[in-house]
Amino acid sequence: MSKPLAFRMRPMTIDEIVGQQHLVGPGKIIRRMVEAKMLSSMILYGPPGIGKTSIASAIAGSTQYAFRMLNAATDSKKDLQIVVEEAKMSGTVILLLDEVHRLDKPKQDFLLPHLESGRVVMIGATTENPYITINPAVRSRTQIFELKPLSVEDIQLALTRALNDKERGLGNYSVSLSDTALLHLSRATNGDLRSALNGLELAVKSTKPNEDGQIPITLDVIEECVQRKALTHDKNGDAHYDVISALQKSIRGSDVNAALHYLGRLIEAGDLPIISRRLMVIAYEDIGLANPGAASRTVTAVQAAERLGFPEARIPLANAVVDLCLSPKSNSSYAAVDAALTDIRSGISGDVPDHLKDAHYSDAKKLGRGITYQYPHDYPDAWVAQQYLPNALLNAHYYEPKHTGKYEDTLAKQYDKLEHLKRQRKNN
């Protein structure tokens, strides 16, 4: 049985890696390691299918070092010993250790000295946060790199390569892939390149050629092969963004039924990352200080949804949507920071007042740094009248409180009180 397309298309050099340019792009850390042949053990973490194994394979291919793959949960200490013996005989071995967060203490104690010597370069792969799940002894001997989700463009690039590659890919098949099918395949797999490639291979190998000898891969074929319905059959895929926009505007407008309808469309399309990101944006952009608790509950609901996956993920997502819809709304903090950014981008900023500048280094006082600073905690109510804004922005007002929720109403009263005190000081 032939190996899956995703396996065959695994990058052989660092130049073939799709995405992760913050790590493997020109001048970036992993590329520098490879080019200088100064590799150190590392942990790569991020969602499935975004390139952890690919980066390890590409590093090995670019450096010509031996490459071995083990799983920390299922492979034994004896398997690690075999890799170490190989490294002793033939030189450096790159070891991809999948599920590195499952590395138990006996395996860890055996492996650590060999990581320190550099004989084994371990590339640990995990979907878990290594700062929480990985033993400090392992973390201290590795560099930790977070991999970013692949963009739609990244996945389309990889799919196109696979279609054109005659040695490892599907280049020997005469395939006609429609634009809508390519777009849906790159979106429906939610950044998982492995799933996208395997979906493409299934589509190509299970579709009969037409009269012209071409294998027509249509949107319907891709929907069946990845088991995800497209939001629409429109040519440019604009409805994908239209539904996301409609979800946010329905929540902003407090129409709970409309919001649940658009949530349902996104659930049916399997767009969990899109839903999660959009709900967290809405919680802070549209609800904001009117109900900060709703933002916290939204984050918790999103985390639960991501752990559960579909179909159960729909339950916490629906909770969040109803909560956000029926919550009081405020965009005051969002509008305030944008107003501040407008001034900054227009060149209106000015120098930080001397009494606010850092005064912890030697000779700071000679430069007049921090001399007249008044420590608020030394005064009643932890407040003292002193200048904080630069001279160029002395009368700037960005924050305009709203009274749509109890929490921001309390903030508004405090804000008005402080502004009154400032005016009193200015007039005296």
UniProtKB/TrEMBL annotation:
One of its GO terms (biological process) is DNA synthesis involved in DNA repair. The keyword Ion transport does not apply. InterPro entries: AAA+_ATPase, AAA_assoc_2, AAA_ATPase_RarA/MGS1/WRNIP1, ATPase_AAA_core, DNA_pol3_clamp-load_cplx_C, MgsA_C, P-loop_NTPase. Keywords: ATP-binding, Nucleotide-binding. GO terms for molecular function: ATP binding; ATP hydrolysis activity; DNA binding; enzyme activator activity; single-stranded DNA helicase activity. Residues 38-150 form the AAA+ ATPase domain. Belongs to the AAA ATPase family. RarA/MGS1/WRNIP1 subfamily. This is Replication-associated recombination protein A. It comes from Pisciglobus halotolerans.
